Automatic annotation (TrEMBL):
Top-level EC class: transferase
Signal peptide residue numbers: none
Protein name: L-threonylcarbamoyladenylate synthase
Matching Gene3D superfamilies: DHBP synthase (3.90.870.10)
Length: 206
């Protein structure tokens, strides 16, 4: 049965955030809010977490997982960025964007795109997500909480608790979350490619 954490949207309770972070370090899979929609998150190296996310979302090996980072310094440890791309991403973060970039050796092989050796990264503009990332001190391995055969992500913490009670370990609820996933930009080629148009304004990358 999943633990349910009611967190203040503007002043997240440090003790609660600390408790969630401890559970993630111990292998928990959590549902948490971001600036686009709810996401599933686990520790970076958790094989069990990866497998559970794949099972919940019915994902295949081609899925791009996302490393949700606290800040640009952290993001830079996990992906390779040249100066032009650096400036473009820096101007758009934090925000509702996911960027696909060549991964560094810090990223577990299981998370890489099989052929391209890329990974998704993002920096959310969300108080609760940022508090959790700060407490963890490392990125959260994440995927949008979009269930198979459903067109929109779940937006209510209580509904997530009700529907995923036996497959996640914790639900963080800080009020309504959006229904629009991030805008995804692939920077692994010679030109940026808009892979998905979502909550972030894609025109700056066109």
């Amino acid at each position: 049965m999943a633990k349910y954490f009611d967190v203040h949207p503007e002043n997240p309770q440090p003790r609660t955030i600390g408790s969630v972070a401890d559970s993630i370090r111990s292998g928990a899979l959590v549902a948490y809010p971001t600036d686009s929609c709810f996401a599933l998150g686990c520790q970076l190296g958790s094989r069990d977490g990866i497998d559970r996310i794949k099972s919940i979302r019915n994902l295949d090996d081609r899925h791009h997982f996302t490393l949700v980072c606290q800040n640009f310094a952290q993001l830079g440890q996990f992906v390779q960025i040249d100066n032009d791309v650096f400036r473009a991403i820096k101007a758009a973060t934090p925000g509702s964007y996911t960027f696909i970039l060549p991964a560094t050796k810090e990223v577990p092989r299981k998370l890489l795109h099989a052929k391209k050796k890329t990974v998704g990264v993002r920096i959310p503009d969300h108080v609760v997500a940022q508090a959790l990332l700060a407490e963890l001190g490392e990125p959260l391995l994440s995927s949008t909480l979009l269930l198979p055969d459903e067109e929109e992500p779940l937006t209510q913490g209580w509904e997530i608790k009700e529907r995923l009670d036996h497959v996640v370990d914790a639900v963080i609820d800080s009020g309504d979350c959006g229904t629009e996933p991030t805008t995804v930009i692939d920077f692994s080629g010679s030109e940026p490619e808009i892979v998905r148009r979502g909550a972030g304004d894609p025109t700056r990358f066109e």
